[in-house]
Amino acid sequence: MYMLAWWALFVSALYSLYSRSKTLYVILVGFFIYVAAVVAPETSRDAAVYIDYYNSVIAGVPVDVEFSFKLICYVAEYFFSSSAGIFYIYALISIPVKAFVIWRLSPYPLLSLFAYASYAYLLYDFTQIRAGLAASFVLLAFYFYVTNAGYKASLALAAAVFFHFSAFVFAFAFVLFGLGNFLLVSFILFSLTLLMALVSLLAPGELFGTVSLLSYLDFTGKVSIYLSLQSDGVLADISFVRRLAPVLYCLLPLIFHVFYIGRDRLLLLYMEVLCIGMFAFSFFSALPALAYRFSDYFFIFCCLSLAHIWRLWGRTITFIYTTAYCCGMMYYMLFYLDFAG
């Protein structure tokens, strides 16, 4: 079912280069909501965990999850009397919020939706649905920031943290945005990323005391859990090449755009967000579970940045370039990492 939706989106993205159809966009978003709400519970590799959490919450058994998830479990039990309800609720909130931001910010929404469906959708809305809902509000916070609605951006980020505490990391993006000079900040972050990646490769181990620092700030106990799992060989694998190569693929056209076409605020913000994500991944690389989790809140913006380069190459080459990204990421997520079970 997912592959059917993916191919339908591929054809629609090609069509959208010449016509912006809101009706088609809504239909395809609805299709992906259906897949996340109905198909994912049967095939997603994390579905069984969420069902176990749901059963524990409803039975009154203590379980280490956010209050927001428990609240959604109670709502699902009230309206649906089944664990399937949690997947309905997450899909019906998370995907429309992302779709709204994509429609508002992307010059080619169906092309951005195609890029989103090839990576972030499988990661978040098909699998890690709690973090996925938080990521939706991270995107919404960014949209409000871009439209100069500061208090709304703060509320959206607070909502993201409410749904998954790890989303607090995006607050650092707003701090860095406030420094201005997006290009200079991006260059510094990119340089630091390369330095830390080199240090990590030449001298594997804890980087700059990251784990020690996080242990002191471990308010939720998650770091201790991740360290325990890592010592047992679980969540211990990390690859700079596999992780950063797709982001560099999205970042390079933005750099070319700056030098050959010119700058605009949104393009520079995308560049800075991707560089923050790369920096976060490298900085927390000693703890792979957190490195992946934190950086994904920034890498989700690849779906928006790819469509933004149409003035550099024109819409046809932009479509081809984005499609190459989509095919590679979809294969990586679906077949290499087996995110659909």
Fold and architecture overview:
- The protein has 341 residues and is mainly α.
- The protein has one domain (2-336).
- Helix content is 77%, strand content 0%.
- The chain contains 18 helices and no strands.
- The protein has helices spanning 2-16, 22-43, 47-59, 67-80, 84-105, 109-118, 120-125, 129-146, 150-163, 171-177, 182-202, 210-216, 222-231, 240-260, 265-283, 288-299, 302-307, 310-336.
- It starts with a helix and ends in a 5-residue tail after the last helix.
- The relative contact order is 0.12.
Key attributes of the depicted protein:
single chain; mainly alpha; 18 helices; 0% strand; globular; membrane; transmembrane; transmembrane helix; EpsG-like; EpsG family protein
